[in-house]
Amino acid sequence: QVQLVEAGGGLVQAGGSLRLSCAASRSVLRIGVMGWYRQAPGKQRDLVATISSGGGTNYADFAAGRFTISRDNAKNTLDLQMNNLRPEDSARYYCNVPWPYTTTKAGSWGQGTQVTVSS
User: Fold this and answer.
1) What's the average model confidence in pLDDT over 28-39?
2) pLDDT at 24 over 90
3) CB of 53 closer than 8 Å to CB of 73
4) What's the confidence (pLDDT) of residue 1?
5) Which residues pair with 33 in a beta bridge?
6) For residue 57, pLDDT beyond 90
7) Contact of 96 with 35, CB cutoff 8 Å
8) DSSP conformation letters of 24-72
């Protein structure tokens, strides 16, 4: 099981930027894919972006062109740079390692970090 801890959320005005980070408890070198998800109150948890061990990325439509996902296999971290934030980006953001790269079929999740974008 890999433990994940997110940080970097906060309150920002529309048009501003935030950088989220996720620290893993063990080496991520052999984790084939990692991702960021978000969940707003009363809504389902949505995929934001994923990144493979080789650096290949995938973005949700709402994130493409504004968000950048990156990983540092040497530091065991996963980041999400978010630019031009909008009020609708307000949500709790979660770092994820999916099965089979962790022992739990539900995947490993952090506790999340809150992002609030004011208009």
Assistant:
1) 95
2) yes
3) yes
4) 86
5) 52
6) yes
7) yes
8) ESS--TT--EEEEEEE-TTS--EEEEEEETT--EEE-TTTTTTEEEEEE
